[in-house]
Amino acid sequence: xxxxxxxxxxxxxxxxxxxxxxxxxxxxxxxxxxxxxxxxxxxxxxxxxxxxxxxxxxxxxxxxxxxxxxxxxxxxxxxxxxxxxxxxxxxxxxxxxxxxxxxxxxxxxxxxxxxxxxxxxxxxxxxxxxxxxxxxxxxxxxxxxxxxxxxxxxxxxxxxxxxxxxxxxxxxxxxxxxxxxxxxxxxxxxxxxxxxxxxxxxxxxxxxxxxxxxxxxxxxxxxxxxxxxxxxxxxxx
Length: 237
Hints:
By secondary structure, the chain is α/β, with parallel strands linked by helices. It folds into two domains: 9-40 and 157-234, Rossmann fold; 44-155, Rossmann fold. Helix content is 32%, strand content 23%.
């Protein structure tokens, strides 16, 4: 359990993901954690049922894509490849047969290359409007038929006043899980006192938009997984 649970932890992912991760943090580090949920993104469905004709495998790089698929069709017979363990767990909970890559889009690409579609079939990548990688284009360029469909949008939200008040020069942990969330944070950081804040980033790509910001420290975890972020947070508590 945490010996210093009073350090605030600011969660800026979309509301459902932040709430779920807050529960994971409390399970790992204790119920007394001081967690502030202030989403910088709002997940909004984009209308349109997926065309599942001749789909060999579904591709998912987020739990949001899985949720949108599960909400739009009863089909559970098409297997899927997922960017990491959490996305695969969500897919299995929805009734899909899922295999997980190691946590990055490149890892998912390598996994997909091990499951090439046969003649007349294709991969279907269900994604958000804003993306961190060109997965469908990569696979197509390598000779594997791939279609993608936008099933949700990630709309920007301002940093809430309660979250802004946490940036007062005292210790604060800011875990960041995606390059876009990091960019949105960086765009709003000019008026914040970052001198006590420590950013904990899922990858180098997530950390890149923070270059030039006066954080007390920017940490990059040793593997692109939420569990690694949790372990890093635990080290400060």
